[in-house]
Write a structure and sequence with these properties.
Number of strands: 16
CATH superfamily of the largest domain: Bira Bifunctional Protein, Domain 2
CATH architecture of the largest domain: 2-Layer Sandwich
CATH topology of the largest domain: BirA Bifunctional Protein, domain 2
Strand order of the largest sheet: 1-5-6-11-10-9-7-8
Structural class: alpha+beta
Number of helices: 18
Radius of gyration: 29 Å
CATH class of the largest domain: Alpha Beta
Helix content: 40-55%
Largest sheet: 8 strands, mixed
Number of domains: 2
Distance between the termini: 48 Å
Length: about 450
RNA sequence: GUGGUUGUAGCUCAGUUGGUUAGAGCGCCUGAUUGUGGUUCAGGAGGUCGUGGGUUCGAGCCCCAUCUUCCACCCCA
């Protein structure tokens, strides 16, 4: 049979893995330094944990896993025939009947489930990070994969806005370390709700936010058309115009919003929250990340209730427009799992997109590919044993070294070192063993020398 | 889910209006060089032309279906 992998999923070769690990390590280090602790959850969750958490669109994108055994055995053939034959055959119910679990769609919902299940062992506020793949049955395209890694950090059990601030600091730390210029866009769901109230369409907040989220992409006219098609009244749309077109500095925008939302307690609360965060950012400036208030930022996920965070690449050398991070606050995510009134706030780096951007911009450091430093040529069993001793010593000193596993032709062994870009080769035969020396060849210059062990170590470190 | 696009050697790609035995570059293997890679030279292996149907005397090329690639929409990291 012909080897293949499922649509939208990828293999990663060594040259890619060293770069990927560099990203993961950078993020992990920052998370650790801020006191976040790692957890992992299983690739699969029960269907009922997943369903209904990401909206109708999200439900469609869930990978469903067929029950083990033959789930159809549980249905009698008569029943099946009746269901299939009936015009009202409920395919969704049928799928649920034969599939009790699915691949996780994100890390936030499994985390909420985790928190509820382990609430007695957790000290709140609980700061956790989680770096694992998630799966979405989306059509693959630029910056979009069916299997990709999210790098989440969340704080659960604290309402303090200091958490939002800390998350923003971590975003800055990570992208500064990676050398990537980014723009952190901030918004607040409460402000969006206030705007919906202000224009008299409180019920349509989701439709409104989804539409205005596209302002950048499709322009004002198209946004208004979409609002109309969602049944928003003309007067509401008219009232909305000056709001979504607000220009100026963050302070100017906020001042304008204070007037507009003066009658909306929720809206004012949102402004207060944002102001608090912006004040902190002013007192303790970020290292390299830019930030702004972006009123059209909505995010699709239903569960955000406060802060909304999104990060975009801010480098003219690339037109990569997808977000490389998303996040926000969700006041009652654990409620549906039976633990009400616990607030959480978190962020999620999209590692695969960050990889694509760093690669396009050539921002991976040269030395990420820290490969083998020294290869011992293998001449046979006697020489092998001798080399193994030296190899052990070298590795103890922290130098990456290997012995070619068979006494192949010299050409083959040298070719291996060359292909693997190993900078030094140690050639040890009878002669060298007798004289207690090592013939050390520098593969870049092509020069070689007889040296003792100390000199060898010196050359390699 | 909607619209478009792609598939020929390990990789990148040629392949004429449908016509004999499907090519190139790179890579790989062997040798020139039995303790010396990257350069050079000589030779060699490697293809169900994504898959399944159809049209035709004849299909890599035309038609249909399907899978895959990439892109846009929806949505999103």
């Amino acid at each position: 049979m012909k080897p293949a992998i499922p649509k939208g999923m990828r293999d990663f070769s060594p040259s890619e893995m060293v770069k990927r690990q560099y990203i993961f390590e950078t993020i992990k280090k920052v998370y650790n330094r801020f006191g976040y602790q790692p957890i992992e959850t299983p690739a699969m969750e029960n269907t009922e944990t997943l369903l209904g958490k990401y909206g109708d669109e999200g439900d469609k994108l869930l990978f469903r896993v067929l029950d083990n055994g033959n789930p159809l055995n549980q249905i009698t053939s008569a029943e099946l025939a009746a269901r299939f034959g009936a015009s009202l055959f409920d395919s969704a119910a049928f799928v649920n009947h034969i599939s009790g679990k699915g691949l996780r769609y994100d890390l936030t919902v499994p985390f909420a489930r985790y928190v509820v299940m382990h609430q007695n062992d957790i000290t709140f506020p609980f700061k956790r990070y989680q770096i694992q793949p998630v799966w979405r049955a989306d059509r693959p395209q630029k910056g979009r994969y069916r299997e990709f890694y999210q790098c989440d950090a969340d704080v659960i059990g604290s309402n303090s806005l200091l958490n939002e601030f800390e998350l923003i600091q971590m975003i800055d730390e990570v992208f500064t370390a990676l050398g990537l210029k980014v723009l952190i866009q901030l918004n607040n769901r409460k402000i969006l709700q206030g705007i919906a109230e202000y224009i008299g369409e409180t019920e349509k907040i989701i439709e409104i936010t989804v539409a205005i989220d596209k302002l950048d992409k499709i322009g004002l006219d198209q946004v208004n058309n979409e609002l109309r098609s969602k049944g928003i009244s003309e007067t509401a749309i008219e009232k909305l115009q000056p709001v979504i077109q607000l220009k100026g500095t963050t302070t100017e925008k906020i001042n304008a919003l204070k007037n507009i939302l003066a009658q909306s307690p929720v809206g004012l609360k949102g402004i207060e929250e944002l102001t608090y965060i912006f004040d902190l950012l002013q007192q303790l400036p970020l290292q390299s990340a830019q930030y702004e208030l972006e009123l059209t930022l909505a995010r699709g996920l239903n569960y955000y209730t406060g802060a909304i965070i999104e990060v975009k690449v801010n480098d003219l050398r690339t037109d990569f427009s997808s977000s490389v991070l998303g996040g926000g606050r969700y006041d009652d995510l654990t409620g549906i799992f039976g633990l009400p009134n616990v607030s959480g706030v978190g962020i999620s780096f999209g590692a695969d997109r960050i990889y694509d951007v760093l690669n396009a911009l050539n921002l991976f450091p040269e030395n990420v590919a820290a490969t083998t430093k020294l290869l011992f040529v293998n001449f046979g069993s006697n020489e092998e044993k001798y080399c193994l001793q030296l190899l052990g010593k070298i590795r103890k000193l922290g130098i990456t070294a290997e012995l070619f596993p068979e006494a192949a032709k010299m050409k083959k062994q040298m070719g291996y070192a060359d292909a693997k870009k190993i900078p030094f080769v140690a050639i040890i035969g009878d002669e060298e063993i007798k004289s207690q020396t090592i013939t050390l060849k520098n593969m870049t210059t092509g020069m070689q020398d007889k040296v003792d062990f100390e000199t060898l170590v010196q050359q390699l470190s």
